Amino acid sequence: MADTATSSVIGKLRYSCKYPSCKNSYYHPVKIPSYHNKKFHRFPRDPESLQIWKNTCNISPNVNCKNFFLCDSHFIDADFACPQIRNRILPKTVPKPSVHSSDEPLNCEVPDKQPELNELPSLNINFSLLAQDSPCCSSSALANSLDDVTETSNFDNNSLLGEHSHCKIISDKVTNFSKTTDHSDKYSFLLENKKGMLGKLDISKDDLTPRETIMYKIHRNTTSKLSKLRSLLKNERAHVNSLKNLYNDGRFQFIEENLNDISKEFINSQLRNVNRSSKGRRWTLKDKAFALSVYKRSPRLYKYLRTYFELPSVRTLKTVLSNIPFQCGIIKPVLVYLKTQVEKMDELDCCCSLVFDEISLSSGFYYESNKQIICGFEDLGNKRSDKAANHALVFMIRGVRKSYKQVVAYYFVKDTVATIDLKQIIVFIINELQNIGLKIVATVCDQGPTNRSAIEALCAENTDNRSPYYFVVNGQCVCTIFDVPHLKNTRNALINNVIEFEKGKIAKFEHIQNAYNLDQQKRTYKHLYKLNPNYFNFKDSFQKMKVKVAAQLLSQTVAATIETFSVFGDLPAESLHTAEFVHIVDNMFDSLNGSNQQETSGKKFKCPLSDNSPHIEFWLDILSKLRNWK
Question: What is the pTM of this model?
């Protein structure tokens, strides 16, 4: 135990000299600046020399001496290649007993070394109590043992408590043994935090029994857990104190009284996750719903906001979406949500239109493990086929007075859906929407053959008055409207043909082309500055399908330009008929596509429909003329 105490004072013991009765050791790192290690030399690899060294050191021939060392005290200067450095031994060198005189102290000794316990008079102390992990190992038992020592010792107690002595101190709470020497004050800063439970008892792990070793490990693990809990408790107390300061300042009261629920949830999420790592943040369902609403409006904006605020990752938001049970047909979760919103809406705000159209998809198949089905085939909700789907038929509602829109159903089809199936789907969706309180006042679709056939079949079922403009579902009239942006079909018909819109009045697309060419010859002031040559490249299918291009070619500005060139003789007089036709089409587009709240100067039909607006009178007049267009 004295060697253990010496090692703890000097430094960590690395290895010792293997020569018999030699007590020199190598310590690293060395805690005492005045102490210097001796130089050590490893046992030789040569078998013959190794055997000689083993015989000299009384080591069995079968022992592996790979990591055995001898200090330089067992060699003379002639044994070294460089006697001044004494770092390399010559071959065939044999160790000597010692080169130190009897009065020369060894470097391995601690300065002012304390006398060992075996140098003191015999003490009848039962040290077996130190190795017992039982109730008998108590402070009272140890105190009684020391009382017996005092009575049976044959020397003066003052000599035991002198300059070079050891004493044992027993605490009332923890059995604590520590050495008190003349150097205790000098090296106490080294021993204060380095000694563990075994160090305080001056015993090592080798002295423990198997049972005590297990209990020692349990003690170490428990101590480590307690240390972590203390650190966690300290952090939580600091967090609580910061919250108390905020509460005392009245900031929580301001948040509670002046902010809405969304703002409160957002602030709470920022306070909850501000000091956490990216993988340790936690989000409530409301946090994810708010973040998802922002992401769906602008993914680019959401990415920018994440640089300044703590927000869920995009992967987390996609995981939330994947948990919503979407299936072909009407989307039940959406209807449940719409029902809660309809209950808060005004009666007129419940009026909406049902819009449906097909979008093109890439054919492909994939397996949905949660549904145990293979997706990619034609699916109409209640029936599936073995055809590979390449289109999606999507139904959406759009508010009439209040601006809102929401997809309510979707289907996968091959090219297009059958007329009878489309007719049944329209009636089924309208029934479901009426059940949650919505009022469907119109349907909007393009002029595809299937859509027209289904609408005509629905309108033909009217028993009271057959009309091609509405049909009845559960006693409610539903008007049929074809998509206004299909103005491009009128432009496409004019490209390859002439249109007679009144008797003796013929519109030709070449007049529009010639008016644009004449306007381009102007140097500075041009009327048709919004048009460009690509608008007349109809071999490009994308340009031909753009509604914007058709609307600008059949606009009021084009009609005015044609009339100007016709008056000045640059275009023939018959081009005035084309200008009149373009003006009629432009008014029709404005009357069905008005987005301004008030009437625009020079565009009287580009405003919402009202009792005093000229829309109805214009529609009645134009409907009687459309039947005669050819």
Answer: 0.52
